[in-house]
Target: Inosamine-phosphate amidinotransferase 1
Amino acid sequence: MPQPNSAPPPALNSYDEFTRLDEVVLGRAEHYTDHHTDTSWRLFFYDNVAPVLGQQASPSGEELLPIPPQLVDELNEDIAGLADALTACGVNVLRPAAPGKDVDIRSPYWDARATPPLNVRDQTIILGTTIVETAPHVRARIFENDLLKPVFYRYYEAGGANWLSMPRPALARDSLDTGYFTRQGLDVARATEGEMAGVIEGLGLEMVFDGAQCMRLGRDVLVNVANHNHELALRWLRDNLRDLRFHRLDAMADNHIDSVLVPLRPGLMLLRSPEYLKFLPKAMQSWDVIYAPETDDSNFPDYSDLGFVIPIGSRYMDINLLSVDEDTVIVNSLYPELIDVLERRGFTVVPVRHRHRRLFGGGFHCFTLDTVRRGGPEEYLI
Ligand SMILES: N[C@@H](Cc1ccc(O)cc1)C(=O)O
Ligand SMILES: NC(=[NH2+])NCCC[C@H](N)C(=O)O
Model:
């Protein structure tokens, strides 16, 4: 697939979150018209949406929750700002293909309004020189990676890259494990009632996993496992990527961990709060930590004029920064408290405005897939 820059592409190489970034895929939001709030969506975002589910997602099968187009336009403006900032830092920015239209998708067991390839961190993990497509939890996302295939073929054709896919889940009626919530005594009925997907007889819990459940540290990869869906995926990772060491984090979060933990350089990490230290491997517990400063609602837009819009992301979304190198980080300009702390620790901070991160469930780490960084399979956990 031709890319704007026709020089031979650099080889896929991405082992960590912080060594010098040379090339990145940046997501896009065209045709983000609705959240399709089916059971798979409600369970995925349950931590954030549970309090409002009764009010907004109607149980009568009205599952599309429209997103005001003005917000998508503003999101695209902010993403353009991120693209410019990356380019100014000398990073080559690739984009997924555009969906071109609103897309309704259908499997033999369910249907959904497709989500555009915005949070490209989620359905793929680059593990060194291997592209790993993961096993989506949200039905609306099952074909999302089709729009990244031009980029994946570019690396594959160039040589040196391997390309693997976890088994594609059917996401039928009983595929998803609710154990993370039920073990905490939470009732998930508000998410599961009204389930419209069909059953596949004999199929129980499937392998279901998102790339953003991992944090890469050279030879070591941290993997958040909160339920049996994830447990199967961890086993698959261990069986298929034998040169890496996968460390199981036991239910550090319901799924993604990139608004909890971001390794900034060897020996230094950004962490949501001290409570999360105990989930980390021993070798990381002695790392130096920058704790995310408190924020309040004034850092977030007020949506009351637009009617009610569900925030699918938490107040901690802006922890989700993107490192250009071990001294340079791209941070939401609407989180000045974090910029301040990082600058005091000697980082060069590139501020980029990002308004609607709670509505679209993604910060700068989520919106990007770093395909070329300079680091290799180093040993950082010793
Ligand atoms: N509770 C999850 C839910 C979530 C996941 C992905 C998103 O893009 C947004 C929200 C988070 O904290 O990780
Ligand atoms: N890769 C991602 N999409 N990460 C998003 C994680 C967001 C996290 N659930 C929060 O609400 O703070």
About this structure: Residues 48, 119, 121-122, 212, 256, 258-259, 313-314, 316-317, 361-362, 366 surround arginine (ligand 2) (CB under 6 Å).
